[in-house]
Amino acid sequence: MKLVVQRVEHASVTVDEKVCGKIGKGFLVLLGIGQEDTEEECKRLCAKLINLRIFSDENGKTNLSLKDVGGELLIISQFTLYADCRKGNRPNFLMAKEPKEAERLYEYFADLCAKEIPVVERGIFGADMKVELLNDGPFTIILE
Q1: How far apart are CA 40 and CA 74, in angstroms?
Q2: Closest to 103 (Cα-Cα) out of 50, 11, 31, 47
């Protein structure tokens, strides 16, 4: 799995001109699921994500987690994180998990997060999504 985690002031995702997910302060997460990924990997990265300490404490140090600040999550499926561009100019996505199983793991991951974080919004798997965000920092982390 690959997660691109962006600390945001707010973010939203729109499909067919209708907002389907919207958060305030928290993380926008682009989630890519690879061929080898399992439910165990979902559990490991969910725990890492929700405990990631990248919010500032009263001393200005990045010492607080999403849970500590009452942050929210917007999770967007992003198979293009598995693009292989080593040969030619057209990326291939052979390392991404097939769509049916990727969607199952995407939903499983989001459900795991929702057990720990009160507000977890999602995009629509496989849809043409428009994502808007206001980066905070910007602060972007890649988890694998």
Answers
A1: 21
A2: 31
Active-site amino acid positions: 78-80
pLDDT band at 12 (very low <50, low <70, confident <90, very high): very high
CATH level 3 topology of 2-129:
D-tyrosyl-trna(Tyr) Deacylase; Chain: A; (3.50.80)
Instruction: List, in order, residues 6 or more apart from 144 with CB less than 8 Å away.
Output: 1, 2, 3
Report d(CA 104, CA 6) in Å as an integer.
Answer: 23
Q: Judge contact between 7 and 54, C-beta under 8 A.
A: yes
State how far the Cα of 26 lies from the Cα of 29, in Å rounded to an integer.
Answer: 10
How do residues 55-102 score in pLDDT, each as one tens digit?
999 999 999 999 999 999 999 999 999 999 999 999 999 999 999 999
Contacts of 41 (CB under 8 A, 6+ apart): 1
**The pTM is what?**
0.94
Beta-bridge mates of residue 12: 22, 132
